[in-house]
Amino acid sequence: MLANRKVILTLLACALPLAMLAALSSGPVSIDIPAAIVDGWYSDSSDAVILWQLRLPRAVLAILVGAALGLGGAAMQGMLRNPLAEPALLGVSSGAALAAILVLYYGAVSIGLVLPLLAILGALLAVASVWLLAGRGASASRLVLAGVAINAFLSALMALALNYAPSMFAMQEIVFWLLGSLANRGWDQVLLALPFVLIGALFLFFSRNYLRALSLGEASASSLGFGGRRYPLLVLFGIAFAVGSSVAVAGTIGFIGLVVPHLMRPLVGQDPGRLLWASALAGALLLLLADVLVLNTVGTQELRIGAVTAFIGAPFFFWLIVKGRREASL
Amino acid sequence: MNEPLPIHCENLCLSRNQRQVLDTISCNFRAGALTAVIGPNGAGKSSLLSCLAGALPAATGRLQLGDRAAASVSAAERARLLAYLPQQESPAWSMVAEDLVALGLLPWGRSIDSQHKRERVSRALEDVDAVSLSRRPVTQLSGGELRRIQLARLLVGEAPVLIADEPGAALDIRHQLQLMQTFRQQADSGKTVILALHDLPLAARYCDHIVMLQGGRLRAQGSPEHVLTPEQVGDVYGVHSEFRWRDGRPEFVTGDLV
Q1: Of residues B82, B86, B99, nearest to A220 (C-beta)
Q2: Domains of chain A, residue spans
Q3: Contact A137 B57 (CB under 8 A)
Q4: Helix (H) or strand (E) holding A239
């Protein structure tokens, strides 16, 4: 099992550069990658500009966002002791989305980084409200309940904003944003999301043993020295930073956080601490591959990556159910 | 090795959902003694144990670990001093048994190297007669097998205080006796062992000290012979009983309802 686990993680880590290469060579025009690399960062040959300023940041962003979503999903499932939990459950995504919608609504999108910054703030506020609503020493089930309530309220506000959208154009912007996309993103978005994702990952790194202890339930975790409010707060805000910042730069991309930990459990075991890093790696790989698919789909309108991940996610659940049925009948 | 660590509580009170579950409980748990906390359903046994283990906060009264106030001991240190097994502990994920046992070593973090950790885990599995289960996923174990794995998790840290809530409830007779012998040995080695028990014959046979609760209050405490009198058992449980000595060993038998 141990050797097996290492092999799988190594394979995943090796697959990442290959997927990266596929992403760099995908796009509407074909470029000479070796030549563009030789030309270097500062060259103004069109191939170099496409590689260094368009395709590379997009691929890096896919890795960053995918890793954040995978990490957030694994942490969420660990904390709620529920394999069906995903970061969106605690209102992280809808908090970020609502803030983004309000920005798009007032047409402030031209001011570059205003949207992502406010979206991160939205995610943090949403999680803070869930925490306050759930109250002191809340159990996992009460946190979920508070998350569902906050989520429902934020969705209502989003519906209202869409309803009164000032123009068809604003409406279209909002809907496309909600579908999630990595198109037209540059180094600005990468640099904006990176520190927040790292803060989130650091928070989750410090809570990995809490998540392990929590496998036994809250009373046992508390007797193992993981009682009190500190650890749940660390996990919640870790998720808010990592997932909130990725929603902020790439829109709402569903299913990665839900599916990836499921995919990794049979491969690396069920330990929630170990699952964090495996899911980050697999999330990065999956989103990068989904983006390669997007880049190689022909059409007048670009396929949104949120739609692609939903098409990966839903059949995955069909498969889970069929597998469960088959095992039950054996 | 670890210093012996007696526990002393004084006027412990606890309310949950506007109900007083512990009412001015004062009692001692000696190091080197096996203490049973007994009482009918709802008497407050589990609440008292989780209070002692620090899993239930906000109790008024005084709780001493050795010569220190429990409140002055950090959560991390407390976890190294007290090992606690709640009445119900269901693993959320299907890890293999030895990984579950190793969770009992979390309070020590990296201060124990992995070779040493593996040795401790296999020793704890031996103690509960579960070596053959070590590679099995815990969700595939029977209730009694899982309980033995959880007991190994309790023992693996070699904490000076062991607290277990109904540890033998799901076990067959052989494993119940084996379990009580294990706790007996742990107590004889100088540990403070505290068990909530429903099985009064087992309590009479193996324990040095009994704390009897009724409706959240302390009804009696002392040696089994002193606590398990027909009058007190009849009054608290509503059952006829007899405490007798046979071949120099205490024996407790129950009869009809009062």
Answers
A1: B86
A2: 2-329
A3: yes
A4: helix A230-250
